[in-house]
Design goal:
heterodimer, A: alpha/beta, Rossmann fold, 5-stranded parallel beta sheet, two-stranded antiparallel ribbon, 11 helices, 7 strands, B: Rossmann fold, 7-stranded mixed beta sheet, 12 helices, 20% strand
Chain lengths: 277, 323
Amino acid sequence: MNEKKFNLEEMKQFAKNLRRKVLDMAYYAGANSSHFGGALSSAEIISYLYGYYMNFDKKNPLWEDRDRFILSKGHGCLSYYAALSEIGYIKNDDLKTFEKDDTDLLGHPVINKNKGIEFSNGSLGMGLSLGIGVALAGKKKNKRYKVFVVLGDGECNEGSVWEAAMSAPNFKLNNLTIIIDNNKFQQTGSNKEIMDSSNLKKKWESFGWNVFEINGHDLTEIDNFFEKTSSSEKPRALIANTVKGKGFSFSENNNDWHHSILSKKFYEQGLEELNSK
Amino acid sequence: MEKNERNIKMWSTIGPRATVGIVAYELAKKIENLMVLTCDVSTSAGLDRYRKSYPDKYLDLGIAEQNMIGVAAGLASENYNVITTTFAPFQTMRCCEQIKVNLGYMKQKVTMVGIASGLVLGTLGYTHCCIEDIGVLRSIPNLTIISPADSLETVKALEELMNYDHSAYLRITGSSNNPIVYKKDYDFKIGKSISIKEGKDITIFCTGSMVYQILEASKLLEKENISAKVVNIHTIKPIDKEAILDSCKSKLVVTVEEHNIIGGLGSAVSEIISTVKNSPKQLFLGIKDTYSKGGNYNYLKVKFRLTPEMICEDIKKILFKKN
């Protein structure tokens, strides 16, 4: 599917650029706050997809055969917008409008196909069903595009996720891949404290998915998953074990950064930490 | 589909619900990108023949309405013309937020058909009756709501909706052996109400199964020297403002619906007439914001005073009341 070769250094650079943009946008958001932690936990996943694995046309976001990406955990949009800006769909200047009045870049994605945003998301538990519809359409039209949906582990509390989970294997959608950003936290606490969602691998396997569990910040492990499951007959699920707030010492595994204001002090500290890597 | 006398009679005999399946079957012959989605109700929606004949244009999601709306929206985003159908409460409220986000907010075009709405499933209780759907959906932007008066209007509405740009909810009321309002083909335009009887004293706005009841009631009113104009509001949203403003010349405006009197046709009409100075009084007929004990359809229509005789009485009572 992809003539490019996986290059770890390139990928790391993509992820670094992405984190820089996440940091900038979070800072632009000012007192409006932003969903910082959950964006950073999916930084490598999104970098891998947009920086390497997915097929798209940089000149034409509407290209019919493009791979489709859906951020079901819509609050993680900082990483999404950053990736779309890295590939040129969103202008760097537009990132400055994040969460500003009348912006196209709200705190949850709003459908805007010219900017590469396929759907509006943010109400949890809805993105996988959309992905199933898109994957079914691809099968019916004999299209080769693939569909990628990123979900949160907290999001898997939603019953609608499991309605969708049941149906994708039923429809034999091997053109569909989900990645669960398993950062072990949700809005007001750890999963263990709020709603125990452990054993995600067993849960998804029992629903009929081809499931692997990896370190979601290790780009090589992510690549190995996609390579070894490329001819999977079942829909694929990647449980990506991640760290909420990954990349900055102040936010890692600190759930205060679920939705929070990035002050000048932390912004500068963040820049310093990023540049020293 | 040919709207001849024979078909109109046949559709009326089987009722609007089973007619939906027949229309879908005919539509599939012409519409290449049609998809019909259900939640384990293919038989109830008259889709058995469709399901066998067009397996590629049919998808059963199992008993999972939230997923159905999401999958429908995903297909719609890839240019499929999608119809979803299940029983009205599950087609609307069970997946209400999916409707809001995917169809309203995101404007993915899906045509939803809520079967057996109103009181027709009264023996099964209020889990299966649906007296709330219009009220719930009316507050969602970018969503059209249509409530056909009979089987023929169901056919015409569904055909129109296939070429319509917006998402819509088609609310199916009435039973088999459904009375015929339209004996022959007529002009149907989404958003344009139809005056089916002229009258100078009062205006009765009605929708769905109530249209036939009101035609009968208006005959009884004539005998009492009350001349009633009867308007079929088949499209509840966007509502035909002009027709409603026109009714402000009447002595009384009556709204009749097989729906809660809160949030439905009556509310929609009052939102317009209340903008007019010295507008007439409005009588709201429908289900009086209650979950009654259940029972068969006719029993419930009597209970909520939705028979021609009782509607006539209630109108007289208010017309001849002092003050």
